[in-house]
Amino acid sequence: MYNTGPFDMFSIIPIIVPIFFIFVFGMILFTIFRGIKEWSYNNKQPILTVDAKIVAKRAHTSRHTHNHNNHMSTSSSTSYYVTFEVESGDRMELHVPTKEYGLLADGDHGKLTFQGTRYHGFERR
What we know:
With 125 residues, the chain is α+β, with helices and mostly antiparallel strands. The protein is built from two helices and five strands, in the order αβββαββ.
């Protein structure tokens, strides 16, 4: 048996494991709270329709790896975002549905309908 002195590496495991689980649980609660806060904020905002121009589009792809009974599988999901510029020069990036993303092009002018950070539609002129 080895003498590790006053510090035994395995003696800190009962301390680190609960801290790790508290941290993960805290991050999950924070994410849920932030989502509820944004949803509530959007519901309190008026639905506005303003003249706008599309200045940028982007797609964000997330890849996930899953392990089921020693069988690895991957999946991906893509979120689509469009940046609109309104008459005042302010810009806002909104998450748009997949079906509409392909129909929108940089430079399009039209009427943007939104509620807070929630996209409702864009009617091209």
